Hints:
The chain is α/β, with parallel strands linked by helices. The protein has helices spanning 11-19, 32-44, 60-63, 81-89, 111-117, 127-134, 149-169, 177-195; strands spanning 2-5, 25-29, 51-55, 68-72, 97-105, 139-146, 199-208. The chain has 8 helices and 7 strands; from the N terminus they run E-H-E-H-E-H-E-H-E-H-H-E-H-H-E.
Amino acid sequence: QVIDIGCGWAELLLRVLAANTSAAGIGIDKDSAALAHGRSNASARGLDTRVRLICGDAIESFLEVANLVICVGSSQVWGGYASALEAIRDHISPGSQVLLGEGIWSRTPTADVLAALDARADEMPSLGELVDSVGPLGFRPLSVSEATQSEWDEFESGYSRGYERWLIAHDASDPDHADVLKLADEHRKAYLGGYRGTLGFAYLHLVAV
């Protein structure tokens, strides 16, 4: 049984189920439109009989049946990764596994980076600090990895592409053109001239002990 917290349209969950035909999954999110998209994808892939996508926040009632909990970019549900792991551990059995995806500082952020992200230096851990925190919370790390720079570039390019496609389709006569152009340029400059290489994302494969 796989539980995906903050699953969005459940792409990761669906890929897990496709890779393991004995698995069933529950995805939980508050975005009803994303969940509807996920249900459509599940049906198209023949996975709809093995997955339930639930709109809401009643998470803890589902954790107790989980063999694998996916919490990628969703620890804010509990206010941060430490509180998230503590809450998850309270509701799963020893041997159950967790895939945690969490923002980190790949290197110490400068004042300019913090300003560009509107962030604090203590808002995220380093990779080492994140891994060191899991033991006292009842987990052992089975594997640790960090998103590569190429993966970050692809992610940021995808984010910016929405702006660029809009700008291509709407000329300067559109009343929103100036605002969208400003957003596109500011985001690109903040990434390429600021937090690229500093803001990172870690993946921890954990087992409850």
